[in-house]
Write a structure and sequence with these properties.
By secondary structure, this protein is mainly α. It has 10 helices and 2 strands, in the order ααααααααααββ. The chain has a two-stranded antiparallel ribbon with strand order 1-2.
């Protein structure tokens, strides 16, 4: 036979075309790519609003329909990220991949996996890591507030993560928005170490939840305070030693003395 067998390791041509198109949309900087990234960012924000209002909306008839629509969107994102990843191992090792898989499971099987629904709030952190958000802040002249904004996002993510966990495991049976408000009230009182004591989580799990919340909450408070009060530094890697953070008006690297040429955003 003269025909050589096709290599089973090479993907079909249409998969390669789809992969290139998706990479252009997710990582490109042209008008079409930016529009796609903005659209996906807005979709993520709408999904988050739905997750936050879920305890109040779940009694409605349209809740299940919206639930499955969001599941389809997240499934599309998982598939798209798998295609644009360098390999499947890289895709599988990313923490947000597993978070989205769990979130997808809570959407498809809400009655069986409602205890894991609190992980949905981690999508706030995923949005904050978007390069589009970072570029938008810099274009608006707020690049010096990136650390403060990231510290605020980390704190809010943790706060709502605890709230979701407490609500799913201790207040899920309450009607309407009451259970969610009680969970949020307990989380804020615990994270701030105020500890009014009018709402206490029962059992060993409740005590362990309170302990972990107080310890991590204090750490995030300290991190947020440091981000607010410490001097602003720009990210500009030194060509000589690689030190990435310098004062905005630095002329020489404080580690090795190499001459720097930091661009002035105000120029």
């Amino acid at each position: 036979m003269t025909d050589e067998p096709l290599s089973i390791t090479e993907p079909p041509p249409f998969i390669e075309r789809l992969r290139r198109q998706l990479r252009g949309l997710y990582f490109g900087r042209d008008r079409e790519a930016v529009r796609f990234q903005v659209a996906m960012l807005l979709v993520d924000i709408v999904i988050l609003c739905f997750f936050i209002l879920g305890p109040y909306l779940r009694a409605g008839a349209a809740y299940v329909i919206v639930d499955y629509v969001i599941a389809a969107i997240i499934a599309f994102e998982l598939g798209a990220r798998a295609l644009i990843a360098p390999n499947l191992r890289y895709w599988a090792m990313r923490p947000m991949t597993w978070v989205d898989i769990v979130v997808l499971g809570t959407l498809l099987f809400p009655n069986q996996l409602h205890n894991f629904a609190f992980l949905r709030v981690l999508r706030i952190w995923a949005i904050s890591q978007s390069k589009l958000v970072t570029l938008t802040l810099r274009r608006l002249g707020h690049g010096d507030k990136e650390d403060v904004i990231q510290a605020c996002v980390n704190f809010l993510v943790f706060l709502f993560l605890v709230t979701g966990f407490v609500y799913s495991n201790f207040f899920y049976g309450e009607d309407g928005f009451t259970g969610f408000v009680d969970a949020l009230y307990f989380s804020v009182a615990t994270v701030t170490t105020t500890g009014f004591g009018d709402i206490v989580l029962p059992g060993t799990l409740g005590k362990l939840t309170s302990i972990v919340t107080m310890i991590i909450g204090i750490s995030l408070f300290v991190r947020l305070a440091q981000a607010i009060v410490r001097p602003y530094k720009v990210i500009f890697p030194c060509p000589q030693c690689g030190l990435s953070r310098h004062e905005a008006d630095a002329v020489h690297c404080k580690a090795c003395g190499h001459v720097l040429n930091i661009p002035d955003d105000g120029a």
